[in-house]
Structure formats: C-alpha cells, structure tokens
Amino acid sequence: MTDLSLHQEKPLKTRIWITRGCYFNMAERLRRKGRFSVGSTSALSLYVIAVSIYLAIPMPQHSSDRTTWLSITTLCLSIAILVITNLEAAKNYTVEALRAQEKAQTISKLFNAYETSAASSVPNADEVRFSQEYSDLLANSSDITRKPIDYYLFQFNNRRFPEFAFTNWDKIQIFLALIYNGCTEYWLYAVMVVGPPLALLWWLFH
C-alpha cells in the first residue's frame, strides 16, 4: 500500500502531505515498538528471575512434579528471551525510527517549499519540478518500508479534513483496520507481559 497508488489522482500537495504524515507515523510507531520491545523482554526476564528465586527457596509445600514443571518452563522462557532479544535487536527500531523521522522532515521541507511557491504570484509555476523532487524522494526511500497501519492512522487522525471524503462506513473500516494492524504489530509484546501471569494463575488454581 503506497500513497501514490492510492492517491495518484489527488493534487501533488495532498500527496506530499499524506506521505509526510505517514513517515511521521512510521517514526513514532518504530519508537513505540522499541519501547514495547525493551519493556516486554524486561518484564519476561523479571518473571523468570522471580520463578528462579521461588524455586531456590526450600519450602516443604514444593511438590516434585510442580518444581520440575516450573524448572522446565523457566528454561524455555530463558531460551525464548534470548531468541526474541536477538531478533528484536536486529530490527534496529531506534535507527529505523531516526531514518523515517529524517525522511519526514525532508518531505516537510518540500511541502513548505511547495506551499510557498503556490502562494506566489505565479501559483504552481514549479509544479513539474516539485513533482520530480517528490518522485525522487519516494524512489530514494525504497529501503524504508512503511506499513498499512501508518496510512490508516493518518487517515483516522485527519478524517475530518476535506481531502478525505469519508462515509461512516469508511470510518468504521479504517477503525477496524487500525485494530487489526495494531494487533499484528504488538501481539508478541502483549503475550510476553500478560501470558506468564495468566499461566501462573491457571497453575495455582488448576
């Protein structure tokens, strides 16, 4: 999903505005994922430490079966933490967020220059030049991959603008798309934070 494919028929100014907003959303999404990644792996590590401390304390009520089950679970979680941490670190959320932010700021300069030109005595005199610069910026951004959620969020935040003539059904679809894409983006972090406590409750009361 790209802005050009969806809004090729729209004015150049609108396309630049949409693309700029999507890159700003992308930068914020990546920073948020970085925070969630660190927070969820830290929480999971704390769970493992807490269980390890519990197992290390000699208590008469510790049954051998439960102790074995907890030990195996702790080992599996430790391996999961190692694998997830390495995979998340390889994604370089902070670096990618910075790149997206820089791209958004570059597009902002183009947008401001276009507005200045449009407000001059000869409006849109440089339309072809700005269009080429915009195309070049997109071509040079092929390695910075935006996701549909960046565009959906931009639509949702700007749903009252005349550039988006949304019906109520359109708004519902965008809202549902945001929920779906949000779940696919953050489900792992939710499982890492909420999963172990729920498993512990099930284990205690089963």
**Oligomer status:** single chain
What percentage of residues falls in helices of 4 or more residues?
over 70%
If you average the pLDDT, what whole number results?
Answer: 84
Number of domains: 1
Note down, in words, how this protein is organized.
With 206 residues, this protein is mainly alpha-helical. The protein has one domain (3-205). It is built from seven helices and no strands. It has helices at residues 3-7, 12-56, 64-90, 93-118, 127-139, 148-157, 168-205. It is elongated, with a radius of gyration of 24 Å.
Please provide a brief summary of the model.
80% of the residues lie in helices and 0% in strands. It has 206 residues and is mostly helical.
Throw out a few tags for this protein.
206 residues; mainly alpha
Task: Furnish the topology, listing elements before pairings.
Layout: H1 3-7, H2 12-56, H3 64-90, H4 93-118, H5 127-139, H6 148-157, H7 168-205
